[in-house]
Amino acid sequence: MRPGSREQTVTLDELDRRLVHALLQDGRLPFRRIADVLGSSEQTIARRYRRLREAGVVRVVVLRDPRRYRENVFVRIRTNPGAAAPIGESLARRDDVSWVTLAAGGTEVTCAMRSDDPRDRDALILERLPKVGQVTDVSSATLLHVFGDSPSADWRALDDPLDSAESDALRARQQRPGELAAGVDEPVLAPDDADLLRHLAIDGRMSFAALAAAVGRSEASVARRVGALLDRGTLFARTEIAPALLGFDTLATLWLSVAPSSLERVGAEIASHPEVEFSGAVSGSANLVVSVICRDNPDLYRYLTRSLGSIDAIRESEIVVAVRRLKQAGTIMEGDRLPNPLAA
């Protein structure tokens, strides 16, 4: 456990935790719909969300689906002692770097890089990083496939998960305001989508009316465009959490070597584990990368020995425990907290 993390943990009751589970399924679900499923009122759910967001516990952002980028690369950077943190902070400031973690021991940084131009990747991996004096080794792995139905796994290790009927009720298809028939609106991003994405990357629950006012377009056109991009997978709503504030202090990246004939089955099985927030096939000797969030080191041990240990197709594993996450899903963390998008 990181020093001081216990004192920073925000107290959540059962309704708070069930709200987080609902938002993890779809961060833009209307509060009224969540309230109906959870047996509460719309006003209470809205108030609870605002409290959690202001405390830095949870935040909804709308992003481009990472699977739509031409290049998705994981980069592992080994450094001299004391150099990992400043290198990680520098990487976190890059727009094309979406995730940055520091490994326990302070000599390794792992980041995820997304780009439509391979030259961006090559400039970082082949030119810039090797010239940094404190870097001792750089390796990369290309993301080949994301397991699960969404760009990120449905993390469910928090207490008070939703039952199957509640999950199904939240996932039921709903008509979006101003939605056009399938095939009318091209799901490829256009230059005039940039302003929409800039605002939604800060507050993914921004209403269509507020978004329209911010970008100077009609509410109907904004609702139609954002709805089409979400429905067709160009964009997705991601609910970010601050694990330490929920009482989950151990984050780890697992680099697994799986028999190729079993990779699809194992990757999908691992993606269904409650502790897993990401499972993806990658290039290299370790062909499966997994991100897990656990309460503490004993909890991680139980996951490794019981859930992961029961999968015979895993040939080798490397467990890298993170001491700190500097950036996630494009958001720079403020210590253990998520930034409040509405703070002055």
Give a brief description.
The protein is α+β, with helices and mostly antiparallel strands. The protein is 34% helix and 26% strand.
Could you list some keywords that capture this structure?
about 350 residues; alpha+beta; 12 helices; 11 strands; about 35% helix
Secondary structure elements and their pairing?
Layout: H1 5-8, H2 14-25, H3 31-38, H4 42-54, E1 58-64, E2 71-79, H5 84-92, E3 97-103, E4 108-115, H6 118-131, E5 135-146, H7 164-171, H8 194-200, H9 208-215, H10 219-231, E6 235-241, E7 250-258, H11 263-271, E8 276-282, E9 288-294, H12 297-308, E10 314-328, E11 331-332
Antiparallel strand pairs: 1-6, 2-4, 2-5, 3-4, 3-10, 5-8, 7-9, 7-10, 8-9, 10-11
Explain this structure:
The chain is of the alpha+beta class and about 350 residues long. It has a domain at about 5-65 and about 155-240. Helices cover about 35% and strands about 25% of the residues. The chain contains 12 helices and 11 strands. The chain has helices at about 5-10, 15-25, 30-40, 40-55, 85-90, 120-130, 165-170, 195-200, 210-215, 220-230, 265-270, 295-310; strands at about 60-65, 70-80, 95-105, 110-115, 135-145, 235-240, 250-260, 275-280, 290-295, 315-330, 330. The strands form 2 sheets. An 8-stranded antiparallel beta barrel has the order 2-4-3-10-7-9-8-5, surrounded by 4 helices. Strands 1-6 form a two-stranded antiparallel ribbon. A hairpin with a 2-residue loop joins strand 10 and strand 11 (about 330). Helix 9 crosses helix 10 (about 220-230). It is globular. Mean pLDDT is about 90; it is low at about 1-5 and about 175-185.
